[in-house]
């Protein structure tokens, strides 16, 4: 989508379809006040009314989109209204539209531009790659948007550019999550990372195959992946390695391209959407792409251990003891608790970069969905300052998190009897004990675990800029965290 910013008033724009955002309880511009009943144009958040002015104003069609009460305005309401706007325009079958916002917004101009562009891009997202026989109205897309504002054009435009870079990272992750598992095996997922490096020369990509993993001792990744006909991979994406006097941050993402549960096979309803079990890895890749487009002054290392968890005569078994990359041994109590096993290798590998912090993302537990539903990512951290930074970044970006404790009591629950650790600690505090298991593979580096099992895939989204399926959860939060760290 091309978004251009200019100064003006949307009711004066000679365009096929225009959108005017307006506040609840405030008078509409005089030029259109007589075209709609006040009770119809409520201004409540995401309420829409379509008008056909018939020459009374310049636009052929005008869509009114509510922002809610002026005092309640924030960036997330702008994101939602923008997504509502682009979805309201789509049925008209036009390729371009003009969008206007009220003057005197409490949000600063750059944040206005960023929020609107993210809302437009995310609201326009559809995954139609495998649909056939669709009509023109079903496939129509708005490719060009003119954003009309009252002053501060340069600042709004700068925000738009940043927002589009972030949104492209989110939508890249959404595409990966929504892609069927047969088309994104670990080798194919690695090709997607290589493609980012080809499009963005500032990103170098290294992929370790199953032979290199065996030579270097990636016992966790190899154990989980050995039941599949698709061999595992370990993906390293590095941005900013040549920069000096900048922070080094590692982001690690679970890349389970399909999770059948292994020999502890999932029930039918539990397996249906397991193509999304690489949502953490997708978020890492989308984050690296966005950071490269933003050109942040930071050294970012993205790591994605990737495997497919399938049952076969070669599969790892309940009762097996595996030796991970760190040398720590893990007793396998359940092969469906495999994500933490491959992540153990990734977290240990991350420490060779001597980062200031390690942030890990994974669709790790159903327990976090029980605790938080689909409304917040579970955040667990060994360092409170890091947790606070991520929570603040999530609040600012609308990619929200909620902190759960990571006390030593939980770490004791994952200590093993046959091995050093066990990969399952029972139902109580299941989300937290998974985080405690991961923390055991990070030494003194500040570490945060983001469990996106509830937010990474949503069947009934409540935000207008989300759609059923993959959400790209974690990208906006982590990118905002990195922007603040690099400022």
Entry summary:
This protein is 36% helix and 20% strand.
Give a structural overview.
The chain has 487 residues and is α/β, with parallel strands linked by helices. It folds into two domains: 2-131 and 140-149, 3-Layer(aba) Sandwich (Leucine Aminopeptidase, subunit E, domain 1), CATH 3.40.220; 169-486, Zn peptidases (Aminopeptidase), CATH 3.40.630. It is 36% helix and 20% strand. It contains 16 helices and 20 strands. Strands 7, 8, 9, 10, 11, 14, 15, 16 and 18 form a nine-stranded mixed beta sheet that branches. A six-stranded mixed beta sheet has the order 1-6-5-2-4-3, covered by helices on one side. A three-stranded mixed beta sheet has the order 12-13-17. A hairpin with a 5-residue loop joins β12 (321-323) and β13. The protein starts with a strand and ends with a helix.
- What is the CATH T-level topology of the largest domain? Aminopeptidase
Share of residues in helices: 25-40%
- Helix and strand content put the structural class at alpha/beta
Q: Roughly what fraction of the amino acids lie in strands?
A: 15-25%
Q: Count of DSSP helices?
A: 16
Rounded to the nearest angstrom, the distance between the terminal CA atoms is 28 Å
What attributes does this structure have?
487 residues; alpha/beta; Leucine Aminopeptidase, subunit E, domain 1; Aminopeptidase; nine-stranded mixed sheet; six-stranded mixed sheet; 20% strand
């Amino acid at each position: 989508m091309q978004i251009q910013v200019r100064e003006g008033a949307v009711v004066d724009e000679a365009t096929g379809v225009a959108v005017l955002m307006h506040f609840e309880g405030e008078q509409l511009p005089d030029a259109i006040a007589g075209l709609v009943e006040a009770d119809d144009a409520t201004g409540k958040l995401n309420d829409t009314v379509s008008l056909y002015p018939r020459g009374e104003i310049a636009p052929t069609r005008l869509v009114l989109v509510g922002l809610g009460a002026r005092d309640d305005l924030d960036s997330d309401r702008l994101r939602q209204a923008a997504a509502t706007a682009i979805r309201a325009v789509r049925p008209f079958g036009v390729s371009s539209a003009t969008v206007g916002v009220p003057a005197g917004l409490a949000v600063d101009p750059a944040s206005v531009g960023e929020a609107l562009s993210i809302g437009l891009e995310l609201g326009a997202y559809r995954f139609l790659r495998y649909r056939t026989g669709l009509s023109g109205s079903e496939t129509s897309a708005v490719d060009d948007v003119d954003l009309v504002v009252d002053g501060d054009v340069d600042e709004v435009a700068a925000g738009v550019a940043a927002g589009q870079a972030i949104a492209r990272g989110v939508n890249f992750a959404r595409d990966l999550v929504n892609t069927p598992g047969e088309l994104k095996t670990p080798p194919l997922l690695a090709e997607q990372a290589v493609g980012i490096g080809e499009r963005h020369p500032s990103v170098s990509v290294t992929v370790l195959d199953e032979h290199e993993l065996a030579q270097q001792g990636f016992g966790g990744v190899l154990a989980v992946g050995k039941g599949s006909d698709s061999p595992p991979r370990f993906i390293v994406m590095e941005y900013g390695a040549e920069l000096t006097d900048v922070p080094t941050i590692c982001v690690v993402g679970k890349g389970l391209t399909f999770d059948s549960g292994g020999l502890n096979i999932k029930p039918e309803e539990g397996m249906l959407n397991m193509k999304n079990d690489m949502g953490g890895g997708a978020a890492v890749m989308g984050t690296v792409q966005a950071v490269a487009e933003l050109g942040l002054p930071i050294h970012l290392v993205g790591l994605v251990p990737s495997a497919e968890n399938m049952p076969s005569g070669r599969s790892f078994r309940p009762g097996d003891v595996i030796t991970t990359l760190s040398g720590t041994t893990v007793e396998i109590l359940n092969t469906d608790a495999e994500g933490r096993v491959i992540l153990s290798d990734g977290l240990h590998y991350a420490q060779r970069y001597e980062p200031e912090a390690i942030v890990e993302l994974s669709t790790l537990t159903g327990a976090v969905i029980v605790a938080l539903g689909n409304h917040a990512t579970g955040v667990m951290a060994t360092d409170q300052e890091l947790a606070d930074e991520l929570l603040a970044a999530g609040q600012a970006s609308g990619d929200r998190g909620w902190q759960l404790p990571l006390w030593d009591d939980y770490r004791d629950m994952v200590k093993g009897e046959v091995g050093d650790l066990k990969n399952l600690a029972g139902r109580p505090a299941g989300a937290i004990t998974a985080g405690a298991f991961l923390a055991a593979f990070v030494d003194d580096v500040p570490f945060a675990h983001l469990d996106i099992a509830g937010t990474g895939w949503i069947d009934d989204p409540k935000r207008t800029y989300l759609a059923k399926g993959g959400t790209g959860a974690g990208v906006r939060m982590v990118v905002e965290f990195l922007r603040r760290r690099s400022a």
